[in-house]
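Chapter summary example.
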Amino acid sequence: FSGLLTKVGVYAVLRTFPLVFAAGDARDVVLPILAVSAGATMLLGVLGAVSQHNVRRILAIHVISQVGYMVFGISMMTTVGLAGALYYMIQHMVVKSSLFLCCGVMERHAGSDDLDEMGGLLKRHRWLGAAFFVAALSLAGLPPLSGFFGKLVIIREGWTASWWLSAIGLVTGGLTLLSMLKIWTQGFWSPESGPRLNRGGDAGGRVRGLRAAHTGIGILVVAAVLIGLAAEPIYDIAFHAAEQLTDPSTYIRAVNPQAGDYVLGASGGGG
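The structure predicted for these 271 residues follows.
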């Protein structure tokens, strides 16, 4: 749910704001509000995640800060900014879903998702540790993973017009990396520190029960890496979609051809 359905709201903003709320004189009022909300969402979200000591809560609160990047891209209302938001939204669905699956498997193995009761998972589950590490670095935005390219496009586009917002984006990325390393260090790297409630005679059944989760994690992590390696063609698709968002005449014609002709004529596009 947190990996996929939370992006429905972002898509609704992408679809409606360029067409309705950011048109004409409303643009000068709406876009600054979006920019401020993006900065607050990024910063407050990541601070909330850093303060947590529970894997599931850290990942859930990070949804807030990552949506802030998407709103940042939308708030510029430029083709590049919207394309960056689209690209980042696509890759985030993949990365966040893989991290939540990793969290579920970690909880099954450790008996809890509290970092105080984890530790030593890397010794017994190296593949899980590697998968979580790759997905975590992508969420933080390290190259050459998918999260890096999306953040790069958004922050670079916003640096001239809203340098303070780009600075918040960089700080948010650093704090995201800090919180992800906290999970990996305490959950995987550090010695076992809590009771292994799920370790024992049912190990074989537990492995069989987690086989589907392992498969899903593998597919999603590989997809995240491929999205990063194929960033240019995927970004081109996002850019073409953003062009249609900034010029809604095509969408208007598709919905109502007569209304589309009226809008074009009123704006001077009809000659």
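To summarize the output: Residues 199-204, 266-271 have pLDDT under 50 and may be disordered.
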